[in-house]
Amino acid sequence: MPPILEVKNLIKTFKTVTAVNGISFTIPPGICFGLLGPNGAGKTTALEVIEGITSPSGGEILFNGAPQTEAFREEVGIQFQHTTLLDFLTVRNTLETFRALYRDPESMEHLVETCNLAEILDHMNNKISGGQSQRLMLALALLNKPRLIFLDEPSTGLDPQARRNLWEIVRAIKEDGKTIILTTHSMDEAEYLCDEIAIMDHGTIIAQGSPPELIRRYCRGGIISLPRANITIPLSQLPLPYKEVNGRVEMTTETIDQGLKILMSKGFDLSDISVHSPDLEDVFLNLTGRKLRE
Predict the structure, then answer these.
(1) Lowest mean pLDDT across 82-91, 114-123, 145-154, 248-257
(2) Beta-sheet strands, E only, within 28-174
(3) What is the pLDDT of residues 25-41, one digit of tens each?
(4) d(C-alpha 143, C-alpha 154), whole Å
(5) CB contact at 8 A, 114 and 169
(6) For 171, how many CA atoms within 13 A lie in the half-sphere containing its CB?
(7) Are the CB atoms for 142 and 172 separated by under 8 Å?
(8) 177 close to 266: Cβ distance less than 8 angstroms
(9) 179 with 33: CB under 8 angstroms?
(10) Counting runs of H as helices and runs of E as strands, what totals does the chain give?
(11) Distance spanning both ends of the chain, measured CA to CA
(12) Is the pTM of this model over 0.85?
Protein backbone atom coordinates (compact mmCIF):
# COMPACT_ATOMS: atom_id res chain seq x y z
CA MET A 1 0.00 0.00 0.00
CA PRO A 2 1.52 3.39 -0.97
CA PRO A 3 2.31 5.88 1.81
CA ILE A 4 -0.20 8.57 2.63
CA LEU A 5 2.54 11.09 3.37
CA GLU A 6 6.18 11.38 2.27
CA VAL A 7 8.51 14.06 3.60
CA LYS A 8 11.75 14.36 1.64
CA ASN A 9 14.72 16.44 2.81
CA LEU A 10 12.46 19.10 4.35
CA ILE A 11 14.19 22.37 5.24
CA LYS A 12 12.86 25.50 6.94
CA THR A 13 15.06 28.50 7.68
CA PHE A 14 14.34 31.81 9.40
CA LYS A 15 17.02 34.35 8.41
CA THR A 16 20.15 32.84 10.00
CA VAL A 17 18.39 30.01 11.87
CA THR A 18 17.71 26.61 10.33
CA ALA A 19 14.78 25.23 12.33
CA VAL A 20 14.29 22.12 10.19
CA ASN A 21 17.41 20.72 8.59
CA GLY A 22 16.71 18.11 5.92
CA ILE A 23 14.33 15.69 7.63
CA SER A 24 12.78 12.77 5.74
CA PHE A 25 10.20 10.17 6.69
CA THR A 26 7.37 8.13 5.20
CA ILE A 27 4.00 7.43 6.83
CA PRO A 28 1.88 4.47 5.67
CA PRO A 29 -1.90 4.82 5.98
CA GLY A 30 -3.71 3.74 9.11
CA ILE A 31 -1.00 4.31 11.73
CA CYS A 32 -0.31 6.84 14.47
CA PHE A 33 3.03 8.53 13.77
CA GLY A 34 4.66 10.44 16.62
CA LEU A 35 6.94 13.41 16.08
CA LEU A 36 8.79 14.00 19.36
CA GLY A 37 11.54 16.29 20.55
CA PRO A 38 12.57 18.72 23.29
CA ASN A 39 11.67 22.39 23.18
CA GLY A 40 13.39 24.04 20.24
CA ALA A 41 13.99 20.78 18.39
CA GLY A 42 12.07 21.95 15.32
CA LYS A 43 9.10 19.60 15.51
CA THR A 44 6.44 22.35 15.71
CA THR A 45 7.97 24.16 12.75
CA ALA A 46 8.16 20.91 10.79
CA LEU A 47 4.52 20.21 11.55
CA GLU A 48 3.42 23.69 10.48
CA VAL A 49 5.22 23.27 7.15
CA ILE A 50 3.72 19.82 6.57
CA GLU A 51 0.25 21.15 7.44
CA GLY A 52 0.68 23.92 4.87
CA ILE A 53 0.58 26.75 7.43
CA THR A 54 4.05 27.95 6.47
CA SER A 55 6.08 27.39 3.30
CA PRO A 56 9.18 25.18 3.22
CA SER A 57 12.60 26.57 2.38
CA GLY A 58 13.50 23.34 0.64
CA GLY A 59 12.52 19.72 0.20
CA GLU A 60 9.33 18.04 -0.89
CA ILE A 61 6.09 16.88 0.70
CA LEU A 62 3.95 14.30 -1.07
CA PHE A 63 0.37 13.50 -0.12
CA ASN A 64 -0.93 10.25 -1.64
CA GLY A 65 2.11 10.21 -3.91
CA ALA A 66 1.61 13.70 -5.36
CA PRO A 67 2.75 17.22 -4.38
CA GLN A 68 0.42 19.10 -2.06
CA THR A 69 -2.24 21.24 -3.66
CA GLU A 70 -4.90 23.58 -2.27
CA ALA A 71 -7.12 20.52 -1.90
CA PHE A 72 -4.74 19.17 0.75
CA ARG A 73 -6.28 21.37 3.43
CA GLU A 74 -9.72 20.01 2.59
CA GLU A 75 -8.53 16.43 3.06
CA VAL A 76 -6.79 16.72 6.42
CA GLY A 77 -7.93 17.55 9.95
CA ILE A 78 -5.92 19.62 12.43
CA GLN A 79 -6.35 19.88 16.17
CA PHE A 80 -4.22 22.76 17.37
CA GLN A 81 -2.82 22.86 20.89
CA HIS A 82 -4.54 26.18 21.68
CA THR A 83 -7.77 27.28 20.02
CA THR A 84 -10.27 29.87 21.27
CA LEU A 85 -13.95 29.01 20.89
CA LEU A 86 -16.79 31.54 20.91
CA ASP A 87 -18.12 31.77 24.47
CA PHE A 88 -21.71 32.56 23.43
CA LEU A 89 -22.12 29.33 21.41
CA THR A 90 -23.04 25.93 22.75
CA VAL A 91 -21.15 22.80 21.79
CA ARG A 92 -24.04 21.91 19.47
CA ASN A 93 -24.01 25.39 17.88
CA THR A 94 -20.26 25.17 17.38
CA LEU A 95 -20.44 21.83 15.59
CA GLU A 96 -23.35 22.97 13.42
CA THR A 97 -21.60 26.24 12.51
CA PHE A 98 -18.39 24.55 11.41
CA ARG A 99 -20.25 21.71 9.64
CA ALA A 100 -21.87 24.34 7.42
CA LEU A 101 -18.43 25.24 6.03
CA TYR A 102 -18.02 21.87 4.28
CA ARG A 103 -19.71 20.39 1.24
CA ASP A 104 -19.92 16.88 2.70
CA PRO A 105 -19.36 17.08 6.46
CA GLU A 106 -19.31 14.20 8.90
CA SER A 107 -22.70 13.53 10.51
CA MET A 108 -23.47 15.07 13.88
CA GLU A 109 -24.34 11.64 15.24
CA HIS A 110 -20.94 10.19 14.34
CA LEU A 111 -19.04 13.17 15.78
CA VAL A 112 -21.01 13.14 19.01
CA GLU A 113 -20.63 9.40 19.49
CA THR A 114 -16.95 9.25 18.53
CA CYS A 115 -15.89 12.13 20.79
CA ASN A 116 -18.27 11.46 23.70
CA LEU A 117 -20.07 14.81 23.45
CA ALA A 118 -23.70 13.81 24.07
CA GLU A 119 -23.83 15.05 27.67
CA ILE A 120 -22.42 18.49 26.88
CA LEU A 121 -24.13 19.38 23.58
CA ASP A 122 -26.19 22.14 25.18
CA HIS A 123 -23.38 23.49 27.38
CA MET A 124 -21.83 26.84 26.52
CA ASN A 125 -18.24 26.62 25.29
CA ASN A 126 -16.94 28.63 28.24
CA LYS A 127 -18.62 26.24 30.70
CA ILE A 128 -16.99 22.98 29.65
CA SER A 129 -13.88 21.43 31.19
CA GLY A 130 -10.46 21.15 29.61
CA GLY A 131 -11.02 17.53 28.70
CA GLN A 132 -14.43 18.28 27.20
CA SER A 133 -12.95 21.17 25.23
CA GLN A 134 -10.25 18.92 23.79
CA ARG A 135 -12.87 16.37 22.74
CA LEU A 136 -14.82 19.14 21.02
CA MET A 137 -11.67 20.32 19.24
CA LEU A 138 -11.04 16.75 18.10
CA ALA A 139 -14.59 16.58 16.73
CA LEU A 140 -13.96 19.78 14.77
CA ALA A 141 -10.82 18.20 13.29
CA LEU A 142 -12.98 15.29 12.08
CA LEU A 143 -15.69 17.42 10.46
CA ASN A 144 -14.45 17.06 6.87
CA LYS A 145 -13.96 13.26 7.07
CA PRO A 146 -10.17 13.59 6.84
CA ARG A 147 -7.91 10.65 6.03
CA LEU A 148 -4.97 12.34 7.76
CA ILE A 149 -5.28 14.05 11.15
CA PHE A 150 -2.71 16.24 12.94
CA LEU A 151 -2.86 16.31 16.74
CA ASP A 152 -0.62 18.89 18.42
CA GLU A 153 -0.10 17.93 22.08
CA PRO A 154 -3.79 17.00 22.48
CA SER A 155 -3.69 16.04 26.17
CA THR A 156 -1.64 18.94 27.55
CA GLY A 157 -3.09 20.12 30.86
CA LEU A 158 -5.62 17.31 31.21
CA ASP A 159 -6.10 15.30 34.40
CA PRO A 160 -5.28 11.56 34.23
CA GLN A 161 -8.89 10.49 33.70
CA ALA A 162 -9.54 13.00 30.89
CA ARG A 163 -6.19 12.16 29.30
CA ARG A 164 -6.92 8.42 29.27
CA ASN A 165 -10.38 9.06 27.82
CA LEU A 166 -8.85 11.12 25.01
CA TRP A 167 -6.31 8.39 24.30
CA GLU A 168 -9.08 5.84 23.82
CA ILE A 169 -10.86 8.18 21.40
CA VAL A 170 -7.66 8.63 19.39
CA ARG A 171 -7.16 4.85 19.24
CA ALA A 172 -10.75 4.40 18.05
CA ILE A 173 -10.19 7.00 15.32
CA LYS A 174 -7.10 5.12 14.13
CA GLU A 175 -8.99 1.82 14.16
CA ASP A 176 -11.55 3.51 11.91
CA GLY A 177 -8.83 3.72 9.24
CA LYS A 178 -7.56 7.25 9.84
CA THR A 179 -3.87 8.16 9.84
CA ILE A 180 -2.67 10.32 12.73
CA ILE A 181 0.40 12.50 13.18
CA LEU A 182 0.91 13.28 16.86
CA THR A 183 3.23 15.65 18.68
CA THR A 184 3.48 15.32 22.44
CA HIS A 185 5.79 15.84 25.39
CA SER A 186 4.22 12.88 27.17
CA MET A 187 6.30 9.78 26.60
CA ASP A 188 3.51 7.65 28.13
CA GLU A 189 1.12 9.07 25.53
CA ALA A 190 3.54 8.40 22.67
CA GLU A 191 4.28 4.87 23.83
CA TYR A 192 0.57 4.09 24.21
CA LEU A 193 -0.68 5.61 20.95
CA CYS A 194 2.14 5.57 18.39
CA ASP A 195 3.02 2.77 16.00
CA GLU A 196 6.07 4.67 14.70
CA ILE A 197 8.06 7.51 16.25
CA ALA A 198 10.60 10.00 14.93
CA ILE A 199 12.63 11.91 17.53
CA MET A 200 13.92 15.32 16.46
CA ASP A 201 16.69 17.44 17.95
CA HIS A 202 18.44 20.52 16.57
CA GLY A 203 16.29 20.37 13.42
CA THR A 204 17.14 16.80 12.43
CA ILE A 205 15.69 13.35 13.06
CA ILE A 206 18.08 11.54 15.38
CA ALA A 207 16.13 8.29 15.79
CA GLN A 208 13.12 6.57 14.28
CA GLY A 209 11.27 3.30 14.84
CA SER A 210 8.46 1.72 16.81
CA PRO A 211 8.52 2.27 20.59
CA PRO A 212 9.77 -1.30 21.30
CA GLU A 213 12.46 -0.96 18.63
CA LEU A 214 13.69 2.34 20.05
CA ILE A 215 13.81 0.95 23.58
CA ARG A 216 15.82 -2.08 22.45
CA ARG A 217 18.17 0.05 20.38
CA TYR A 218 18.94 2.87 22.81
CA CYS A 219 18.44 1.42 26.30
CA ARG A 220 20.01 -1.45 28.15
CA GLY A 221 19.33 -3.12 31.46
CA GLY A 222 17.07 -2.03 34.26
CA ILE A 223 17.13 -0.65 37.78
CA ILE A 224 16.34 -2.49 41.02
CA SER A 225 15.77 -0.23 44.02
CA LEU A 226 15.82 -1.28 47.69
CA PRO A 227 15.60 0.73 50.91
CA ARG A 228 19.05 1.37 52.33
CA ALA A 229 17.88 -0.23 55.59
CA ASN A 230 17.34 -3.56 53.81
CA ILE A 231 21.03 -3.85 52.99
CA THR A 232 23.10 -5.12 55.88
CA ILE A 233 26.44 -5.50 54.10
CA PRO A 234 28.79 -2.67 53.09
CA LEU A 235 27.61 -1.14 49.83
CA SER A 236 31.03 -1.76 48.34
CA GLN A 237 30.24 -5.47 48.52
CA LEU A 238 27.04 -5.26 46.49
CA PRO A 239 27.04 -7.65 43.50
CA LEU A 240 25.63 -4.98 41.16
CA PRO A 241 26.64 -1.40 40.25
CA TYR A 242 24.72 1.03 42.47
CA LYS A 243 24.05 4.57 43.59
CA GLU A 244 22.25 5.98 46.64
CA VAL A 245 19.17 8.11 46.00
CA ASN A 246 16.96 9.52 48.79
CA GLY A 247 17.48 6.69 51.26
CA ARG A 248 17.33 3.96 48.64
CA VAL A 249 19.98 2.02 46.78
CA GLU A 250 19.46 1.80 43.02
CA MET A 251 21.27 -1.09 41.37
CA THR A 252 21.78 -1.41 37.63
CA THR A 253 21.42 -4.80 35.97
CA GLU A 254 21.58 -6.20 32.45
CA THR A 255 18.05 -7.60 32.89
CA ILE A 256 15.60 -7.37 35.78
CA ASP A 257 15.33 -11.16 35.88
CA GLN A 258 19.09 -11.59 36.12
CA GLY A 259 19.41 -8.94 38.84
CA LEU A 260 16.66 -10.46 40.96
CA LYS A 261 18.24 -13.90 40.73
CA ILE A 262 21.58 -12.48 41.91
CA LEU A 263 20.03 -10.67 44.87
CA MET A 264 17.90 -13.68 45.88
CA SER A 265 20.91 -16.00 45.72
CA LYS A 266 22.73 -13.65 48.11
CA GLY A 267 19.80 -13.62 50.55
CA PHE A 268 18.88 -9.92 50.25
CA ASP A 269 15.69 -8.67 51.89
CA LEU A 270 13.52 -7.77 48.88
CA SER A 271 10.61 -6.21 50.77
CA ASP A 272 9.63 -2.76 49.46
CA ILE A 273 11.51 -3.47 46.24
CA SER A 274 10.84 -1.43 43.11
CA VAL A 275 12.02 -2.20 39.60
CA HIS A 276 12.24 -0.08 36.48
CA SER A 277 12.54 -1.47 32.98
CA PRO A 278 13.61 0.90 30.17
CA ASP A 279 10.80 2.85 28.53
CA LEU A 280 10.39 5.55 25.91
CA GLU A 281 11.22 8.30 28.38
CA ASP A 282 14.62 6.68 28.95
CA VAL A 283 15.14 6.61 25.17
CA PHE A 284 14.21 10.29 24.89
CA LEU A 285 16.53 11.37 27.71
CA ASN A 286 19.41 9.19 26.51
CA LEU A 287 19.18 10.74 23.05
CA THR A 288 18.41 14.37 23.84
CA GLY A 289 20.03 14.82 27.27
CA ARG A 290 18.65 15.56 30.70
CA LYS A 291 19.27 19.29 30.81
CA LEU A 292 16.09 21.38 30.80
CA ARG A 293 15.60 23.53 27.71
CA GLU A 294 13.45 26.63 27.66
Answers:
(1) 82-91
(2) 32-36, 58-63, 66-67, 76-79, 148-152
(3) 999 999 999 999 998 89
(4) 17
(5) yes
(6) 13
(7) no
(8) no
(9) yes
(10) 10, 14
(11) 41
(12) yes
